[in-house]
Specification:
By secondary structure, this protein is α+β, with helices and mostly antiparallel strands. The chain folds into 2 domains: about 170 residues, Transposase IS200-like (Alpha-Beta Plaits); about 300 residues, oxygen-dependent coproporphyrinogen oxidase (3-Layer(aba) Sandwich). It has 16 helices and 13 strands. The strands form 3 sheets. Strands 5-6-7-8-9-10-13 form a 7-stranded antiparallel sheet. Strands 2-3-1-4 form a 4-stranded antiparallel sheet, with helices on one face. A two-stranded antiparallel ribbon has the order 11-12. Helix 1 packs antiparallel against helix 2, helix 8 runs parallel beside helix 12 and helix 10 packs antiparallel against helix 12. The chain is elongated and about 85 Å long. The termini are far apart. Homodimer. GO terms for molecular function: coproporphyrinogen oxidase activity. Keywords: Heme biosynthesis, Oxidoreductase, Porphyrin biosynthesis. This is coproporphyrinogen oxidase.
């Protein structure tokens, strides 16, 4: 562990244990900054900072030999207050806190850019300059702040305030890609965990607007073995009969059944992701499913021995509108093509193969994308996979909402509603018999209400049912029996 030496600059950063949140609200962040001033002002000068939900960055200059103890006092004081507020016990921050000595001013200058742009790079905000809990705005203000003692020095690194602002506005994440290695232990896991929180907010907000009647009900839960999640369910709306948009982050000892599955012993794991299913009332509007997830596995010493991304999105119509199928698949292809032109045909084929009810000899729907075990290679780093998966996640609303808006007002008969419920039965069969996510949740003692959230509220199983020859219902069945290239 590197010693905090007087007169040198250090990057101090840390996160919550097992990537848990250390800030649940803006009030938490504001209180943390109050404690920073209280406990650190005598021992360090602060050049820059940024707080995110489950980690923080501080760039400091060490003033005396008490700096290490000052940081410990800060973390202890905040942890006690946070635990008391949230009725929790135990360690909040990982130990020891991480530090990296900064050797030259060019590195320092780019690190300051990296820290200030962190909220945008993590997709917490669309514009880093408006984010309240970084030091960026303090450099543009005359008010006294945490960085006041080093404000002029930092600006001088950029020559003047105008250039300071220009560099911040025109430096891209790609320009700072080398700093991804700086907090490699934070970047993949924590960036994605933060991302799914933001994505859940944006998706549920848009779907409430589309429905116009129902609101998502939120249920925050904890898993006894470690971690928890945030379930959001919408029911009996003007458009959505039932739907859920759930996020979770769970960790602990990998269950014996899963250790056998992966061929490991005494392994711990961390898994997080967002999973959604939406069942509209109108049978002319398709059901949709999407999932984006990240998994890490550790040895007995806590070292990462494996990590990967997975996910995708797929459409399950009850009545086939070819233009809707083409739109959905084109949106998927556009997201894939930004990263690799081979991804769409590859992951489209995997989706057709995966979402297949073998016992019925038909697909669950008309597919989309499915990818799993996306691991680092010479061609794709974990950061590259993060960029790809979040691109797909960001495309979801564009892929689905225009279809809903176009079809939600169409008339339908009771017979068509019956057909929808019969097809929903096939959906249930797939999820309970074949779906890996459902099986993983059940085998890791996941929250049963969240796992079975994907099941529709009204379903029919009609004995030996066959649609009428030449009907729209038969047209759908024929398409489900042989995958179609929609784009």
């Amino acid at each position: 562990m590197e010693k905090l030496t007087i007169g040198h600059h250090f990057h101090i950063y840390n996160r919550g244990v097992n990537s848990a949140n250390i800030f649940n609200s803006e009030e938490n962040m504001a209180y943390f900054l109050t404690l920073v001033e209280k406990y650190l002002s005598e021992s360090v000068d602060i050049l820059s900072y940024c707080l995110l939900n489950n980690h923080f960055h501080l760039i400091v200059e060490i003033k005396n030999n008490d700096a290490s103890q000052a940081f410990s006092n800060l973390f202890n004081a905040y942890s006690k207050a946070f635990n008391r507020q949230n009725s929790r016990t135990g360690t909040l921050f990982e130990r020891p806190f991480k530090r990296k000595r900064i050797e030259d001013e060019d590195y320092l200058k780019n690190l300051i850019l990296y820290v200030h742009k962190n909220p945008e790079n993590h997709k917490i905000t669309a514009n880093f300059s408006t984010y309240k809990f970084s030091s960026f705005q303090s450099f543009l203000s005359d008010n006294k702040s945490l960085i006041h003692s080093k404000k002029d020095y930092v600006i001088s690194l950029f020559e003047n305030l105008e250039n300071f602002n220009y560099m911040h506005q025109n430096t891209t994440q790609k320009d700072l890609s080398g700093f991804g290695n700086l907090t490699a232990d934070l970047e993949v896991k924590d960036k994605f965990f933060n991302y799914i929180h933001q994505l859940q907010d944006s998706i549920t907000s848009k779907l409430e607007a589309v429905d116009g009647k129902a609101k998502f009900q939120e249920d925050v839960w904890e898993r006894p073995e470690g971690g928890g999640g945030r379930t959001r369910v919408i029911e009996n709306g003007a458009v959505f009969e039932k739907g859920g948009v759930n996020i979770s982050g769970v960790h602990g000892k990998l269950p014996d059944s899963m250790q056998k599955y992966f061929g490991v012993e005494d392994a711990d794991f961390f898994a997080c992701g967002l999973s959604l299913v939406l069942h509209p009332t109108n049978p002319m509007v398709p059901t949709v499913h999407a999932n984006w997830r990240y998994f890490e596995m550790y040895d007995k010493d806590g070292n990462i021995v494996d990590q990967w991304f997975g996910g995708g999105q797929d459409l399950t119509p009850y009545y086939l509108f070819e233009e809707d199928a083409k739109h959905f698949h084109q949106t998927c292809k556009t997201a894939c093509d930004k990263h690799n032109p081979e991804f769409y045909p590859k992951y489209k084929a995997r989706c057709d193969e995966y979402f297949y009810n073998a016992h019925r000899h038909e697909g669950r729907g008309i597919g989309g994308l499915f990818f799993d075990y996306c691991k680092a290679t010479d061609a794709m780093s974990m950061q590259n996979w993060y960029d790809f998966v979040t691109e797909v996640g960001d495309s979801f609303l564009e892929a689905y909402v225009p279809i809903v808006e176009k079809r939600k007002g169409l008339d339908y008969s009771k017979a068509q509603r019956d057909w929808q419920e019969i097809r929903r039965g096939r959906y249930v069969e797939f999820n309970l018999v074949h779906d890996k996510g459902t099986l993983f949740g059940l085998k890791t003692n996941g929250r049963i209400e969240s796992i079975l959230m994907s099941l529709p509220p009204h379903v029919q199983w009609v004995y030996d049912h066959h649609p009428e020859a030449g009907s729209e219902e038969e047209k759908l069945i024929k398409v489900l029996q042989k995958p179609v290239d929609w784009v």
